[in-house]
Here is the input.
Amino acid sequence: IFYAAPRIMDVHAKGVDKGRAARTLQQRLGRKYLVCVGDAPNDIPMLEVAAVPFAPDDCYPDVRAWGPVILPPCNDHCIARLIEILEERYA
Here is the structure.
């Protein structure tokens, strides 16, 4: 059992987390880079394995303290900004 947020509980098999799932997806798709966006504490394992981790400005404090690249808030085009950043870095 993992508490994703104050009132949200994830229940999954031991050893399963978003990091492992994201890495498995990356390998199955044959992608070189893993880019992830997360806003809650249960996203931290996924952000840890990402080549480039991102979080929206309105993420949970635990995620912000972890140190990802901070995007605009969720309702302010954060994914559009993510795409712009990636284009700048990898174009």
